[in-house]
Amino acid sequence: MLIRVIRLLVTGLLAAALTTAGDWTTFAHDPARSGWANDEKKITRENVASLRLQWKTRLENPSYSLSALTAPIVVTGVSTGNGTRSIAYVAGISGIVFAVDAQSGELLWTKSLKSMAAPRKGGLQGTYLCPNGITATPVIDKAGGSLYVIAPDGSLYGLGLGDGKVKYGPAPFVAPFAKSWSLNFVDGVVYGTVSLGCGNGRSGVYAADVSAPRRPVLRQLLLSSAYTAGIWGRGGAVIDTATGDIFVATGNGPWDGRTSWGDALLQLDPDATRLLGNYTPANTQELDQTDTDLGSSSPVLLGGGYIAQGGKDGSIRLLSIKQMAGAAPHKGGELQSIPTPGETDLFSTPAVFHSSRGTWMFVADDQGTAAWYFRNGKLQPMWHNTNHGTSPIVAGGLLYIYDQRGALRVYEPDTGRQIVELKCGAGHWNSPIVVDGKIALPEGNANHHNTTGILNIWRLKSR
What we know:
Number of domains: 1
Shape: globular
Helix content: under 10%
CATH superfamily: Quinoprotein alcohol dehydrogenase-like superfamily
Strand content: 35-45%
């Protein structure tokens, strides 16, 4: 374990040296899914009102993650056949990966990864439960020059950032047609999660060591003996980079505290092979019966040994990681329970902003937006409004939240005062990212089965 901790520290230093303020290499910015880009300096409270739509790119064969679930990922300084570029990547239900020039909107390359027809049987029908394309947001290893993505057949690929050529794989990763969420990457390991596999892929956490591509090492920890208890949170595996520990939350399914972990918050070791801690609400059976998943949202690492977990029952629970420790089942024991902003289902991933005095948590749902201040082991409400929203992000001292009815709102994080509203198209679970003085936001809803998807880029007005 000591050797792994040293590797984590060294990897973190190398990543810091190779990453710039214009990089957003994974969903919600970092392995901990904080949604906080503390290195963004160009867009400020003073100039944010001068943002203008730079371009709107229409992509054929809409991506599931582009048009419904996630934000793009962006990396700067990529060497291509036509010079060095900043590139935005999206991938989705068509089984296609798109690489778009983040400056001009030019489509640089596409890569098709074996899109197939999904099996249809029993109640598992349609593209929502049986996807036939890419559902997990890819992740970038900038140091290795690779974009990692799960193909429709469950294989893991590593694609060249500049040209899309296969550098790694295909290597077995998850079951074909398994519905997966955002990939993560730490210390040479790609982490993935599965929520449903159309009857052939059980929920769990999957880890592939890609540091030695000729001898790929696949590890997995299944979290249910049934084809339920899926990991539905947009963030997938949330990783504490200080320890390497993995945190996930599961949805409806049987719970026995041994081999079945429905409606549970779980802490796993960095190898994704051993359970380190767990929590499930005392009313886990009720949650299962009423389809009010604990794991509809991803875990939130607040720091100081505390974690928050939202759910479809309209509640956010504050927990102590120390009290979760051990393989023995832990039921109940929440330190605090607060309502979601609209007291309704929480599907978004909250954002966390750390200051010298304490920690801010921002949450949005389809009925409201709210902020809490975490200090001395307690979440204190700070402000609230009734604006709809998806997964928030914080960048350059500003809070960005997409209203799926067709607006990107920018707030003062500490007061909740809206500074500007940027008009755009309607969407579903889309969320923005801020990179190098630009905002990238997809729009659209994959449930509408449109044949195109749209990606917007805003930038500051030139003087």
